[in-house]
């Protein structure tokens, strides 16, 4: 009796409230607006639930919903949409700083920017936003003669940064300031705003928002942003090893047919993008294409809500189209007229960085041939609730000489 009752309760649909609007991007998804009450029938995965709204049923993103009746003071509504405790907590330990500092391409590029602009940096005021252990600030102090470097850091690493600055004789020039850039008070505006803010797929973590707010408040007219521009690059690719490891594996392990697990495997391994993918240039099926470009002087925080781009690829060799791989580049303009721009490229034809690349797997691999065209668009939609997260939506068409054209759409939450 007792057990039956509990089971009944578990199976009963639960009522949820939409925290924000959602527009369906696939035929199985359900659109809703803020305040809509949805009946959740099945929490099929952590991210996508099967729900009903006014008699219509479909998948909805779990993170956009709150259990009805969960009011202020409830755990979920108290949660910080920026997850700052967790975010800055993780930058308070050495693990991530070690990873970033060990990334020579990244760190040497920032050093190169300072070196190649050292003459023009003389007597300039610099802000290093999110300075971490202070490496960029100390490059400035050691390799150039700025009048002041404000090194801003919100995590508890900042206590050690002060000590490092002193230890390396940079305390005359570098002023370490503890706190979020958003709450910063400075006695003056700055000539240069330098930051290493880029996340996976460029925008993930959305630290760029802090940089743009600091720009609008603290960069003097005519001041310089480093990086000055950024781009997200995309390429259609093969990912045979990953596909074999996670999907083909189930075909005949130990002589047994495990294919009934393949839908589960797809859900578990291919729903979200794979960070930390290092693509072999040989696996790129065409030349890459910049799909989103940010001008760091003009982009506005509100633009980050939804960034759209288009692509048109020409397949250069026959192969299996398993998915798309994305990475970013950033450019640092010279302080001198006609001076060379420095670029950090995290793509497959450059030295690997700690960001590596990001792989988006299609649900089914598609054979493509030389001369096929793959065109379509990409949308990066920032999560309206969880501000450091976003969903990447890809829509593609394949025009082939041999087959009919095929189209597909897939949304990838990163992570909520
Ligand atoms: N204010 C101050 N420090 C910050 C802020 C902020 N708003 N946001 C991030 N940081 N490239 N994805 C700090 C953070 O604590 C860490 O030390 C560093 O900036 C992140 C740098 C690398 N992350 C990235």
UniProtKB/TrEMBL annotation:
GO cellular component: cytoplasm; nucleus
All copies of domain SH3, residue ranges: 11-70
Reaction(s) catalysed (UniProt annotation): L-arginyl-[protein] + 2 S-adenosyl-L-methionine = N(omega),N(omega)-dimethyl-L-arginyl-[protein] + 2 S-adenosyl-L-homocysteine + 2 H(+)
The protein's enzyme class: transferase
Entry superkingdom: Eukaryota
UniProt KW keywords: Cytoplasm, Methyltransferase, Nucleus, S-adenosyl-L-methionine, SH3 domain, Transferase
Record's subcellular location: Cytoplasm; Nucleus
Any one of the GO BP annotations: methylation
EC number: 2.1.1.319
One GO MF term attached to the UniProt entry: protein-arginine omega-N asymmetric methyltransferase activity
Stated name of the protein: Protein arginine N-methyltransferase 2
Upper classification of the organism: Eukaryota, Metazoa, Chordata, Craniata, Vertebrata
